[in-house]
Amino acid sequence: MHHRARRVIAALAVAVCIGVGAASAVSFIPQELLPAEEIIARYVDSIGGADAVRAHSSTQAQGTMELLGQGIKGEMRMYAAAPNRVLMIASFPDLGIESRNGYNGEVAWAADPMTGERILQGDELQQIVDESDYYSDLHDSSRFQSMETLEVTEYAGRLTYKVKLVYVSGRETFEYFDVDNGRLVGAEGLHLSLMGAVNVRTFISEYREFGRLMVPTKIVQEIGPGQTMQLTIESIQFDSVEPSTFALPASIEALVG
Amino acid sequence: MGATSATAAQEDVHLETFDAAWRIISETHWDTEFNGVDWEAVREELRPRAAEAASVADLRGVIREMLNRLDQSHFALWPGDAIGNIRANNGDVAAGGGGDPGFKVMLVGDQFVVSVVDPKGPAAEVGVAAGWMLQRVASYEIGDGAVLKLEDVDEHLLRVEAQLGMRRRISGPPGSTIQFGFLDENDKPRRVEIEVARPAGELSQFGNLPPTFAALESEVLEPDSNLDVGVITFNIWLPVISRLFDEAIDQMRHADGIVLDLRGNPGGLGGMVMGIGGHFVDENLSLGTMQTRESTLQFITNPRRIDTSGSLVEPYEGPLAILMDNTSASTSEVFAGGLQAIGRARIFGQRSMGAVLPSLMDELPNGDVLQHAFADFVISETGVRLEGRGVIPDEVVDVTRSDLLDGYDLVLEAAIEWIEKHR
Fold first, then answer.
1. Cβ pair B312:A254 closer than 8 A
2. Domain extents for chain A?
3. Could you tell me the CATH superfamily of domain B202-360+374-422?
4. B112-120 CB contacts, 8 Å cutoff, 24+ apart
5. Do A70 and B296 touch (CB under 8 A)?
6. Residues 40..99 of A with a Cβ closer than 8 Å to B: which?
7. Which listed CATH number (3.30.750, 2.60.40, 1.10.150, 3.30.1480) goes with B2-71?
8. Which one of A249, B2, B175, B282 has the fewest beta carbons within 10 angstroms of its own beta carbon?
9. Is the model's pLDDT at A3 over the cut of 50?
């Protein structure tokens, strides 16, 4: 689910990234690069294992968001459900706005008072299609052209494996996995929005246990110079999201026609 | 000993604040040449003065000198205590200005003349009328010095500065009383006392910016029985305006033309041009390009095909006129310049300010707020940089005092006349 987080945060500086799993940290010093598949497997184990991830079919998360240093703070609610549905609601009381982004498996859309309602198309749509898999933490190989370990490098102050992922669509992203404990500590890649593409660096930390899963509760995203968004996850509930949550708003239905 | 410690602590905060301001710009300015300024040398030169600053005011002076070296818009230092006062008073500005005297002035030639009087405002109550010439604000005598005359400085910039300065002078804290001196319609001196009112509109805050009253007015004029012209005026680009704008558009979808009055609008949230612009174009078109160090982003219109009731509509296709003056700035210029370049709008009035750089507001260690531009901006269609240039109207309309005295708004009338011919 961290994939979704990167997308939405950059879209309006809002989104959620919730990794799933439970820990099984194994400490070692790498002598050589591990295959990407092995790094992914270690990661899945570190957050609780594949069975724990697959044990759920929907997630509801709440938290806060802040554009660091800019005095802009808001609240966010994120809903996701298998196989690939997502809804993000970001509200900024001081600004008097509420932004919504969603994907129901067929239609990806966005609505906020400043830009109005719109249906995502082209590369923007492809981005959400790529990243909306509810079980994205498992990195199902059928969704990728390739996974390749590039190097061991420092990221977010940790020694990490840098893994290059190429979706079937051709989109590329880079993920950084902690050499020591296997957890995902960050990611980097182009984010597409109405305004164009911008490189986003994500830093993931403060994993907490929710049920059988370890979930990061702090997600920081650097979105261009001087713009850093921090998400803090405060609560998570599994398997309580109503399917109607992902129904298209009436205005989006009208646009779809 | 205690005094020495306090001074040392103060020096630490001053240096920390100076260093933070310098570093933020060093890391985020889109131009690694810093507009031709040796940014490292600026730091070496001014940092000792920041350390020696005897007061917060002195420190602000040093930081502002640093910002001025860049000679670009949207670099400013906002005093944290002033912003705090504004917030604490819920917008009843305690730190200078912000209230509404009930009239606006504009430069006509080299004199400030009342351009608009709110019929329900405090100025109207004491008889102030459009066309009156402003001569005195409290103890400040305007005389012949309304606009500075400086060699080597663009006259446009001097006029902009004069108008911004006068706007601040006439807008004291709400509830305060200001004495004004005018020449009336017969050139007879008039002295009036005006109690400054709380501005109309909704109090809104965007991040570290001080709270601002955002207001939008709209009406459908019927200059004659065969012509309907929608007119929308708003004072700042903040999100609370968006919904009001959507509702206003719904009221004038069938008008023969629409006039957006951006005179005096200083800008606001740049991203809003994508939604507001989408009311007038049926395609994803780029109004402007924002170039940061790392990326190129565009302000793309989002065609607005849903009205406020949720029904399908088409973006407005009729003639669109935009009114501007020397104090229309930033987002107003991005919007007008972009629509002008793609041929969707015709601009009436006067050349705009020419201050368009996208900026962020970062809080500094001492609580002050640094406004700093982080991107360059060009009109996508033409590649024209608006910074320092402004939007050049398609129809420059010179306003005279006698026109104002006679109750004419020549800029609006020129726009309506154009709409009548092109509906």
1. yes
2. 2-256
3. 2-enoyl-CoA Hydratase; Chain A, domain 1 (3.90.226.10)
4. B112/B142, B112/B146, B112/B166, B113/B401, B113/B404, B114/B182, B114/B404, B115/B399, B115/B404
5. no
6. 67, 69-72, 92, 94-97
7. 3.30.750
8. B2
9. no
State the maximum Cα–Cα separation within chain B, in Å, rounded to a whole number. Answer: 82
Residues carrying CATH 2.30.42.10, chain B? 103-195
The CATH-assigned architecture of domain A2-256 is: Clam (2.50)
CATH code for B103-195?
A: 2.30.42.10
Selected residues 130-169 of chain A with any CB under 8 Å from a CB in chain B: none
- Closest partner residue to A95 (CB to CB) among B24, B30, B239 is B239
Q: How many CB pairs under 8 A join A and B?
A: 111
How much is the ipTM here? 0.84
Indicate the pTM of the whole model.
0.85
Start and end residues for every CATH 3.30.750 domain found in chain B: 2-71
Q: Which residues, 6+ apart, have CB-to-CB distance to B306 below 8 Å?
A: A116, A117, A251, A254, A255, B312, B313
Question: Which chain A residues contact residue B304 at CB under 8 A?
Answer: 116
| Angstrom distance (rounded) from CA A175 to CA A169 | 17
A190 in reach of chain B (CB within 8 A) = no
Helix, strand or coil for residue B32?
coil
- Residue-wise pLDDT tens digits, B80-107: 776 555 445 444 333 345 789 999 998 8
CB contact (8 A) between residue A194 and residue B295: no
Confirm or reject contact between B207 and chain A (CB < 8 A).
yes
Distance of CA B254 to the CA centre of its chain: 30
Query: What chain A residue is nearest to B304 in terms of C-alpha separation?
Result: A116
Please determine, for residue A24, whether its predicted confidence score (pLDDT) is greater than 50: no
Closest CA in chain B for residue A74:
B207
